[in-house]
Structure formats: structure tokens, C-alpha cells
Design a protein that fits this description.
CATH topology: Growth Hormone, Chain: A
CATH superfamily: MFS general substrate transporter like domains
Pfam family, one: MFS_1_like
Membrane topology: Multi-pass membrane protein
Main location: membrane
Number of helices: 18
Number of strands: 0
GO molecular function: lactose binding; lactose:proton symporter activity
Number of domains: 1
Structural class: mainly alpha
Radius of gyration: 20 Å
InterPro entries: HcaT-like, MFS_assoc_dom, MFS_trans_sf
Amino acid sequence: MYWRLSNLYFWFFALLGALLPYWSLYLVERGFSYLQIATLMATIQLTKIIAPSVWGWLGDRSGLRVRLVRFGAVAGSICFAGVFLEPGFYGLLLVMLTFTFFWNAILPLYEVITLRVLGSKKEKYGRVRMWGSVGFIGGVAIIGGVLELVPILLLPWLLLPVFAGIAVSAFLVPSERGERKEPAPKGSLKAIISHPAVIAFFFMNFLLQVSHGAYYTFFSIHLEQHGYGKLPIGLLWSLGVVAEIGLFLVMHHLTRYFSVRQIAIGALTLTMLRWVLIAEVTDVVPVLIFAQLLHAASYGALHVISVQYVQGFFGEHHHGQGQALYSGLTFGAGGAVGAWLSGFLVDGFDTSAAFWGGAAAMVFAIFITWRWLRPPPEENAT
């Protein structure tokens, strides 16, 4: 069961690892402007605003989350095939919107499936999710190595085996048999999302993803401008995920000694430091390596506590919709806004300015977290 749960995480994030570090460089080679690149990269996050809510609602209503995951995997792969027509800006925008609409439906649904299958052994979530990080590293390293030998315009072809892996692994997901389909209490979702601590939680994560806009859109371009080759760029991306894996392995120990609020404030502070270092000390390799190791805080720690936070506040009946809101309002809206804002900063100034913008977003996130974030009911109970 452990390997069947881990398999889809591996392939899903292998695609992300093959896409995020190199897609912006592919778009540069295609001749798109910085603002066009920012817009196209933002679609990866933009469809998270709508898609997870639609699919999460369908999953909660039907209980057929596994079938929806399989459908999203196959439909997303088919839509991505439009890239091979080499469309212009608007055509590629349409391809990416349709592809990511289905692709972004997979993860929130699968998070719910994983936590339900684990049941009382939720502390094992980090070890299951760790294989997504391993997949990301594999995607980054293999694609980066190949791109040292072949033109980056061949990138879409290199992604085909990864799409095949996602489709196959989706059909190995444990069956939803026995899943409870009791109707949710009416009106309770509104009460949950209007809770001050939940509002603070969403604002914190929204600003966190705004700050990541420069990273996911322009980090590779920023490094290339400072003389780094494609393989070193890929290795630096991978290094961040290696740190993330280490964090996943020890996170269950940290949650025993520190509260959600303490972990969040510490991680947000380290995230702010990370963006400043990338903006100003890019040429000093040891410092850049340290900045990438801080990915354990800026993504790993905050994601683990956020998944558990959603479960604690939204409970069993609204878990799917809570996970969808978390994905949509933070990774989706925050990521899209961050990508666009970073595009304007790069177009008007340079790539370093975009990372300074991310650091500024963290100042507000730290204040909101310190002032209003409170632990979910499950933590209160302990």
C-alpha cells in the first residue's frame, strides 16, 4: 500500500521537476517576452484557483476521487499534446490552461485519498509525500543532463515518458471502496472559512506563494544571466528538494516540540532570508547553495503543517473542499499574482528586483501569522 500511494507522487512531481526549471528557458528560446513568459508560467498556478474547487466538490459529492484522479491524469496528458503544434502566444496559453486545469485537479484529490488511506497513521504522510520530492529531483537531473546535449526546443518531447508514468500510476491508486459518503452538515463550510484563524492561514499561504512567483518563473533565467549552465541550474533546483526530503523525514519530530504558529513564523522568516540571498549573492556559490537548502522551510515545513491544518479545521465532511481552497487560494491565486508581479518587476528593473518583491511579501506574512494564526482543533485537543 505504501508504494502504491507513493507512486503517483513520484511521477506527478517528476513532471513538475522537468517543467519548472526549464519551461521558462524553453519559452525564451521560442522568442516570448518576459511579460508573456510570466503570463504563461502563471497559468500553471492560475488554474489552481478554479480546478481544485471543481474537482474537490465533485470528489466530496460523489466519493469517486480515485476515478477523478485517473480521468485528470489522462485528460491532462492529451491536452498537453497541443504543444507539439508549436502555437503562438495565445495558442500556447490555451494549451497550458486546458492541460493544467486537469493536471491541477490531481494533487488535492490525491492528498485526501492518501490521508484517508493512512487513517490513524497520518504521521507517515511525510514519508509517503517524500517520494514526490524524489521524483522532482529525478525529473530535474535527468532532463537537465539531456538538455546539455540536445536543444531545449526538444523539451516537450522529453516530457512524454513522464506523462506516461503519471497515467499508469493513476491506475495503481488504491480503490475508494469503503469510503464514507455521508452528507456534510449544511452551512458548516461557511462557518469554517469565516473563522479568523482560517482567514489568517489562507492569507499567510497566499503571500507565501506570491513570494515564490519570482522563483518559479525567473529563477532559472536569473541563474542563466549569472553564467550558470542548464545542468548546474537543474542541480540547484534539485538541492532545494533534497533539503525538502530531509525535512519531511524529521517533520513529525518538530511538530511534537513546536506549535503550528511557531513553525510557520520560523519558516516564513527563513523564506524571507532566502529571497534576499538569491537576489543579492547569486554569484557566491556556497551562499546560493545555503539559500536553496532553505527550501526545506519555504516549501517543506509550511506545506506539511498546512495539509494537517486543513484537515484539522475542515474535518472529514469538508476535507476535499478545504484542500481545494488551500490549493486554489494559495498556490493558485498567490502563485499567479506572484508570477505576474515578478514579470513586471523583471521587465521594469531586473530579476533581482523580483526576489526583493518576494522578501517584502514575507514581511506581511510574518505579521499576519504572528497576530492571527491559531492552531487547528486537533492541535488544541492535544
